[in-house]
Amino acid sequence: MVNVGILGAGRIGKVHALSLKKIAGVNVKSVADPYLDEEWAISQGIENRYKDVEEILNDESIDVVYICTPTDSHADLIIKASQKGKAIFCEKPVDLDIERILKVQEILKENNTLFQIGFNRRFDKNFKKISQLVKNDTLGDLLSLKVVSRDPSAPPRSYVESSGGLFLDMTIHDFDMVRFLSHQNITEITAKGASLITDYGDIDIDTAMLTMTLEDGSFAMIENCRATTYGYDQRVEVFGTKANVNCKNVFDNSVEITNNEGTSSDKPMYFFLERYEDAYYQESVEFVNSINNSEKVSVGIEDALESALMAVAAKKSLEENRSVTINEIREEFNIKVK
């Protein structure tokens, strides 16, 4: 039996707890949150319910921790959990500072800690299929890749102020998707952005277009916006010398109505929790399998670092109005260039 402790029981912590409870051989034994919803925790049969995460970190019976707390606590909790010998799953990002991510990477290596980062979109069945098609050469040589990611509604100013900005908060998932789908690293980024729909343009952009060059010279593009009028917009297209493949939005149903006014259908699923419900489950299934079989995870600290470097490069590109190479960012932090 794998005993799990959930650190942070807000929206995403609850999602992971519910996913884990579906997996055979897993016991969600403990949960900790200063604002814990006791009624929810009791309804889920969680044995130990705490306000302080230290209670879980110090519990030797806990094999695994899921870090679902605010971003500014991630790095410290990863380090503490690693030093306590726990396997660790952490929501993105590890930290907003590259130096801190490098420190976490060092600690994880020292303690030989099994660590998985929460890039859940890799576990979506549609995106996995596209990644496989690229890998097995069904599409031929890659020419271009496009990721569209638009949220249904903009977050409040208070959230944005501590989020690290659009690139580290939102686009970081898309940076990882480009790497996952292309099976390549990005070498150069050009970012354009503006505040077009929100009232916090003094602190962050809400709309962005990014173009990237991949290792083989092909191109990728990411389009982001903090809000739409029609739901959660998540689309991908990959174009190669042999074929083109695309993944459209997911709907609650596929019914189309045609009448004298035209053809209509439902809007896409409204929020990421519904759109990626199965992906959240599948990423935990893989993580538990890695624990039980002592296998390397498919998405770890190196992937977290790479996407963070891309976010920093994008921010620099936007601020300085120029293209920025990832190696330029690597050199800033004394990371070996690729």
* Count of discrete structural domains: 2
Order of strands, widest sheet: 12-11-7-10-9-8-15
The percent range for strand residues is: 15-25%
Number of helices: 12
Task: Report the CATH C-level class of the largest domain.
Answer: Alpha Beta
In the CATH hierarchy, the architecture of the largest domain is 2-Layer Sandwich
Order of helices and strands: EHEHEHEHEHEHEHHEEEEEEEHHHEH
Distance linking N and C termini: 41 Å
Number of strands: 15
Q: Major β-sheet, in short?
A: 7 strands, mixed
Mean pLDDT level: 96
Fold and architecture overview:
This protein has 338 residues and is α/β, with parallel strands linked by helices. It folds into 2 domains: 2-113, NAD(P)-binding Rossmann-like Domain (Rossmann fold); 122-278 and 305-332, 2-Layer Sandwich (Dihydrodipicolinate Reductase, domain 2). It has 12 helices and 15 strands. A 7-stranded mixed beta sheet has the order 12-11-7-10-9-8-15. A 6-stranded parallel beta sheet has the order 3-2-1-4-5-6, with helices on both faces. Helix 4 links the parallel strand 4 (64-67) and strand 5. Helix 1 (11-20) packs across helix 10 (277-293) and helix 6 crosses helix 8.
